Amino acid sequence: MKRVLPTIAVVATTILALSACSGSAGSSTSVSPAPGDDEKITLTVWSGFADAELDVINGALDGFHKLHPNITIKSEGSQDDDKISQSIRGGTAPDVAISSNANALGQYCSSGAFQDLGGYIDRDKVDLDQIPKAVQSYTEFDGVRCSMPLLADDYGLYYNKELFAKAGITEPPTTMSELRDAAEKLTEFNPDGSIKVAGFVPTIGFYNNRLDVWAPQFGADWQDEDGKSSLSTSPGWTDLFTWQQEMTDFYGQDKLTAFTAAAGQKYSADNAFQTGQIAMMFDGEFRTGFVESQAPGIDFGTAPLPVADDLADTYGGSDIGGNIIGIPKGAKHAGAAWELIKYLTTETAPLVELANGLKNIPTTFDALQSPDLQFTGNLAPFLEIFQSEHSSSLPPTANGGAFLKTASDFAVKWQTGGVSDLDKGLADVDQQITNADALKP
C-alpha cells in the first residue's frame, strides 16, 4: 500500500456525483443477517492491489473461505476509487470495496456511497478501542463509520549510513535545524556546480515530500476548532514554508529542478535514494521492501521524522493513513460482506498475515503485539511511530482530499517563486478551501 494523490480531483467529482443518486448520508444503522452455513453465495471483492500484492490479499481471503466454505470469494484487483464510484452509480457495485485513498472517506460516508457499519459494530460488540485513535479518525466521518481500517502507513526518515559515516554524522537528525545541518554536510556538488549527492531534497511534490507528511512535523494544523481551514492562522504553516525556502536557497532552485528531473521514478529501482544520490528522505514503511529488493547493497537506517525545533517534545510521531474497507451502496450480500470485513479488520491472524506480506502496519493493538509480526530491523521504528501519541491523520471532510490538493497546488507555486507574500497566499488558500466547502452538496 502506497498512498498517492494524483487523482484527487477526479475522485472528488465522481464521488460527489453520487450524492444526487445515493440519498442522504449513510446514517442508517440497519443490518443484514449473516448467511447460514448452508447458504451458498459468492462475494465480489474489489481492491486496488495487483500482481504480488493481490496474491497477498487473496491469501487472506482464502483463509476466510476455509472458515466459511459456503462463501466463495471473487477477488478483482486494479479497481480504483473512480471505478468503485462508477459501479455504485451504475448499480453494479461489488459486495466489498477496498480503497487506498482514505482521503475519500468523508465523501463515501456523507454521500451514502459506503453503507453505515454502526449497526453491525453494535450488534457484534466490536471493540473499536483496539484501533488507535488516529486510525479511528480517518475511518469515520461526522459520526458515521462507513468503513473499517485495513492496514496503515506511517512515515519516517530514511538515511544512508555509509554517507553518514563519510560526513562524520553519527545519529539521524531529530529537529529540522539538525536536518538542515546534516543535509548541508552530506551534499556533494559536481565541478560544474550541479548536485551530485543531495543531503535532503526539499522540493514539495518530489517522491513523498507531501504536505500531509510534512505538516504534523511543524505543528501545522489543517483546521481550527470550528473546522475552518487554518493555513493562515496556524503558525506551523509559515514555519514549514520558510524552512522549505531556506533549504531550497542552499541548493538553488535551478539546480534542484535539474536534479529532480533526472532522478529515477519513486517506485523504480532507480529511485535516487536507492542509487545513493540522496542521503536522507521521508518515506513510508513500505519503502523498506523496495530498498531491500531493488538495492540490497545500500546500508540504510530508519528513524522518526524530525520536528520543528520548538516541538522537540513531540518527536516520534507522523501522519498516518491507510486502506479503508467498506460495503458499497447496492451490495447484494451485505450480511456476508460484513462478516468478511470483520474477519479482515479485527482478527489478529489475517491482519498479521497481510502486514507481513505487504509490509504495512497492522491496525489493531493485538496485531501490533503479535509475536508473528515480522517487523524487525528497519521496520521496527515504524511500529513505534504508529503507536506514538503524537501521530495524527488528516481531518476527514465531505470534499475528501480537495483541501489537500488546493494546499499542494499553492506549495508548488510557492517553491517556484510564484508567491511574493506568504501570509496573503496562505489566506487566499483558506478562502479557496472555504469556498469549496460552501459549494459541497
What does this structure look like?
The chain has 441 residues and is α/β, with parallel strands linked by helices. It has 2 domains: 8-154 and 321-385, 3-Layer(aba) Sandwich (D-Maltodextrin-Binding Protein, domain 2), CATH 3.40.190.10; 155-314, 3-Layer(aba) Sandwich (D-Maltodextrin-Binding Protein, domain 2), CATH 3.40.190.10. 41% of the residues lie in helices and 12% in strands. The chain contains 18 helices and 10 strands. It has helices at residues 8-22, 51-67, 81-89, 105-111, 118-123, 133-137, 161-167, 176-186, 211-214, 235-251, 253-262, 287-294, 334-346, 348-358, 365-368, 380-387, 402-415, 422-438, and strands at residues 41-46, 71-76, 96-99, 148-153, 155-160, 188-189, 195-200, 278-284, 300-304, 321-326. The strands form 2 sheets. A 5-stranded mixed β-sheet has the order 2-1-3-10-4. Strands 6-7-8-5-9 form a 5-stranded mixed β-sheet. The radius of gyration is 22 Å and the shape is globular. Residues 3-28 have low confidence and may be disordered.
